[in-house]
Structures are given as structure tokens and as C-alpha cells.
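Page 42, continued from yesterday. The earlier attempt failed because a stray header line got pasted into the input along with the sequence. Redoing it now with the clean sequence only.
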Amino acid sequence: MTAQQELERELSYRLTQQGWLSELSLVALENRDMLAVLQEACRLVAAGLGTRFAKVLQFLPAENQFLVLAGVGWKPGVVGVAKIPAGLDSPAGYALHAGEPVVSEDQSREKRFRFPQLLIEHGIDRAINVIIRGADQPFGVLEVDSSGDRQFSRHDVDFLQSAAHMLAAAIERQRADELIRENGERVRLALDTGNLGSWQVEISDWTLSCSDACKADFGRQADNEFTYNDLLAAVDATDRRRLRRAFDSAVRKGSEYDGEYRVDWPDGSEHCIHMRGRAIRGPDGVPLRMLGITQDVTQRRRVEKELADYRDRLEQLVAARTAELKRSEADRRRTQEALHQAQKMEVVGQMTGGIAHDFNNLLTVMVANLDLLTDLTAGSERARRLIDNVQRAAARAGQLTSQLLAFARRQTLQPERLDLNRLFDDFKGLMRHASGNAVQVIMQPAREPAICDIDRGHFEAALLNLAINARDAMPRGGTLTIEIGAVELGAADVKEITEVVPGRYIEIAVSDTGSGMTPETIERAFEPFFTTKEIGKGTGLGLSQVYGFVKQSGGHVTLRSGLGHGTTVSIFLPRSPVAAPSEATVPAAPPADVRGTGTILVVEDDDDVLEVATETLTELGYSVLVARDGPEALAILQSNEALDLLFSDVVMPNGMTGMSLARRARRLRPGLKVVLTSGFTPRDLSAHDVPGSEFQLVGKPYRRAQLAEVIRATLASPPQVAGTSDPTRHSRP
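This time it went through. C-alpha cells are written below.
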């Protein structure tokens, strides 16, 4: 499995877990049966982690044990009945008392804890335990168990903790609901039973007479004397003024009187007393007395305050959970978008690489025929000029194919250890020339050696592409800044970046002061053939070539831009250990005489390529036999035909690759020389059993001189016995 596939699998797995958490959240919010919620939670976390066993352990403090309150996968008679110790020597007990997750990978090698007998009887050998917290003390533990070779990751622990947090919130909500119901029942019972005190005040002399219940509301015994002045004195000084004004108003206006007052009892406690009454008038309308009732509403007000506090707490819990769900949804969307972008770029890359391969076959036919025409039209200046024009066009087409392969990450790279600071010194003249006179170029090397193992030519081409794009974004001039620096990318930095691992990188930041890009343009900037330039002003392959080269080199590229704020493209390349960069070597000139003699078997399923290869080899002095697939070539190899070399395409029909054919040819004819050819690169050819170290490989399109040199050198090399191997060079035009 490739790194890309592994990443996609991990992202898909985490998205699935987010789905299980969302379902659990809905169950917890909609269901008031807590046991049903806990049972459903066990099912969901087991499904989310791909295990058979899960359980909720309720902590019993008086017994220092756990009760298996809910669970899935267990034998009958376990859930709701079985108990296990809650000491620190058990995984669940340690998770409860330490308040941190416990992961046990292999009970046979576990030295920290003793596995409960219940787990051993079920064949459990690994588990995760996380605490389910409560308001005053932990509720218990959420545990997932496995009897197989399941390996739990950090993401699995986070998933289980999220589920435990949801259960803790649901349990706390249920307790709050129960308290609200209990307190409500108490209030209703107090109102139903009444227990109201009655009182009467004669206005003529302010004589108070009251019931025993009224005296009790003011903290007095039934046999205690209790006067109107005693009543006033018991009321808090501030509330006493309100009470007098309310009494006076009721007497004067003949209206009802209603109020609540703080009352200090003789024992020093403070109570809240509700008093209600009205003035009774005589026949002449003169107020005679005040009649009313009292009620101690201290408990009611305390309950109401507790209810208000619980409502506030519930609102806070709901708000916190809502925020957590929003963050979870945002994380899920970002992960899904990263997966979608990676899949889209991979599909576009595969399509682009396939197009480039087919185009290489076409170029092979065109380039080889141009070489043949050059000989046939010798002496004609006009013909030579026309052929040169076509050859230049073919060369540009080859560059286009190379750019397509670069985006698809299928180009052939020849990395060497380079100091980018030194490379900048050699390259800055060309950068200034490419940027134009209207653009000021500022190049800031790193303070320390910036060593990377990269392909020099492709790196320079990538920088040149960025410089040209920056120049085009600043038609009236501006500043182009290229900075090199060493950076450290941690796990959080590369969390949503595919195919990039944490570590030390060299950052090359290319910034301009140009017009900038819209968000829509940024999203598509690295796609091949996408361009915002006028028709004929660009191919749309510049940034895609940069993207492909950097990704194939194990790095990462980012783009930051805004309309009117310029653009910064940052390339991150893996930093290599500091060492002396390799020096460029000058390849030896090929020999002047590349013609030869001998018989060559050419195997090629494309008729046009077969024809031009045959014609080219014939012109070079060789005798040629042809076959269009592996079985046809084997028939010739098994005959008495004299053969000196097998020249075969790699990817062929009828179930036999060029590599398979070459190996069988060596067994049939030990010492037979072999040259393979393909429009794919070695990276792709690994899927066709071509490791790149057994046979000479020449890439398509190839020039006649190149093919002639490879054939001549292979024929001149020492014979090789079947089954042996020597280092092979991949020859490219």
C-alpha cells in the first residue's frame, strides 16, 4: 500500500469515527433512558473501533468495585450483574483514579496491571480505558476490549475520550433533570398542603393575634408571646420599611397587601416569609383590622435559585457541547476537503501521466522519421530548414510532455546533494534576466548551509517558472523576493498535508508585489492547463510542474495570495545532512561512429513505432526481425534464427511484459543482449516488473543517435548470464 493510499485510508477511518460520534451525540440528546443511552454508546464505540467488546463500568465507592452496567459482546449474565475490582492494579481502576486513559496492548506481557478474570475468560488481551467524569466524583469508566491483534492508535484513544465526554454530559443532564423533578414535587407538595399561618392586626391599637403556624414562620414556639412589634423587629431593617409602607397603603386605600420579607429567627438563621392580607372596614368605611396569611417560602426560593443555577449550568454544558460539535464538524470538513483534494490531484495526475505516455509514442515516431528524413534530404538547404523547424517543434512537444510528467510525479529525477545558497549565486543572473528590468529582484540566502538532495535542472526550472509568473503579475514593475530558510515542521503543521512527514525542511519563499489572486484562482492554481493569462501567453503548466517536482522530491508547496496584496509561493524541501555538495560532472562525448552490425529482434505492439524503429536500425547497419507481442517474439527466439540483441517495448498486450520476455529470452539464449524501451518512467514501470537494475532501458521518445549509442554500447558490453544483474542506467533524451 502506498503512502497516499495509507493516508486516504486513515482519513476515511477518522471520518467514519466522526460519524459514530455524531450518532452518539444525537442518541444522548434525544433519549432520556440513561441505561439505553449507555448500551447504545457501547455498540457505537465498538463499531467505531472495529472491536466486539465494549462496556460501561459504574464505580461503586462503598465496595471499591465496578458494576458492568452496560456492554456488548459479553456472555449472558455479565451485563448488569458482574463486578470487577477498582483498585490501582487494574487498568480500569487506574484510569478512574489517575483520570487519564490507559491502553493495554498485550495482557500476556502486561507488567503494570492484572487483567480481571472476566477479561481472561473472554479471551481479551488488549483494551482502552477512559474515565467518565461526574459533577462530584467520577461516574465510572468506558472500556473497549479486543481479543485479536487490534492495535489501538492515539486517534482511537481520542475517539473513545470524546465518547466518554458525551456520556458524562448526558449523565449530568439526567441528574439535573431528576433534581429538577424532585424539587418541583417538593414545591408542589408544600403548596398543596399549605401549612399557612394566619394573622390579624387590630388597627386601633395594633394588637396582633396569630396562629401557631404563623409564629413558626417567624421562628417562635406556640407558647411564645408574639406581638406586632415583635413581628416588625424580626423583619430585616431594610425590608421593615417596605413592610410599614405596604401596611399603611393597604389601610389607607383599602387595597390588598402582598410581599416577601427577610426575617431573622431567634436562632440566627434567615428566612424568607411571604405575607398577604387585606384591610377589613366597618359599616362606616373606616378600617378596623388587617387579616392575612404567612408562609415560609425559604425552601421554595432556595430551590428556585438551585433550579436557576442548574439551568445556567445546563445552558453552559449545551453551549460547550455545541461548540465542540461545531469544532468536530469543522475538523471533519477540513479532513474531507483534504481527502477530496488529494484524490482529485491523484486522478488528474494519473490521467496526465497516461496522456504523456501515449504522446511519447507519437513523438518517438515523429522524431525518428525526422532523423531518417535528414539523411534522405542531404544537400537540400530548404528541406534541412523545414526539418529543423519540425524538430524544434518536436523538442517543444517533448518539453510539454516533461511538464505533464512533472505534475504527475512521473518524471525521471537525478537528485544530487546541493547547497541552495551556492546554487542561488550561480542562478541569480538568470533570475534577474528572466524577471525583466522593471522588476527588482531581492535574493536572501539562508544564514547556514541549505543542503537538499534534489534534481538541479528541475529545481532551476521550478524557480524560473515562479519568477516568470511573478514578472507577469507585475506588468508595471515591482519587487520579487526569494528567501531561503531552515524550518521545522511538526505533526500539527503537516496534519492536513498529504505525503508530508514532520521533520526539518528548507523553505524557499518566492514573493511578488503583483496583483494577487482570487480564492477561486488559488484553489485551481496547481491544476495542469489552468491559466488566467491571455490566449497564447501561457500553457498553464508552470505551477503544475512546480507542484509535481516538489511532491516527487518529498516536499510540499503552499500558496498565499490576495487581490492587491501580491503572492507568495513557498517550497518546502527535505533538509539533508550538511555535507559537501556534489560537483557537476561533464558527460563523456559519445563516439563518432555509432553504426554497427548484427541481428536485432524488435518487439513493439504499436505499428508506427515498430516501423520507425525497424527503419532506424536498418539505416544503422543492423539486420532486423520484428514481432508484435511476447508470444510472437518467443516463437522467433525458439527458432534457429541468429540473434545478437533483443529490443523490446515494456508494456505489451497478451499477458506478457517486455521484462518477462527478456528473462525468458535469456533462459532460451544465455548471453543474449537486451535493451528495453518505454514511454513510462522507472517509477511507473515498477508496476510492470521493471525494478530498473537488470536490463538497459531507453526512454521514449529517443533520437536516432541516442538509440544507436545505446545499442552499440550494449552489444559491446561483456555477455551476461541469465539470473545475474548489473547496475542499469536509464537513458533519456
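Notes: The first helix runs from residue 3 to 30.
Reminder to self: strip header lines before submitting.
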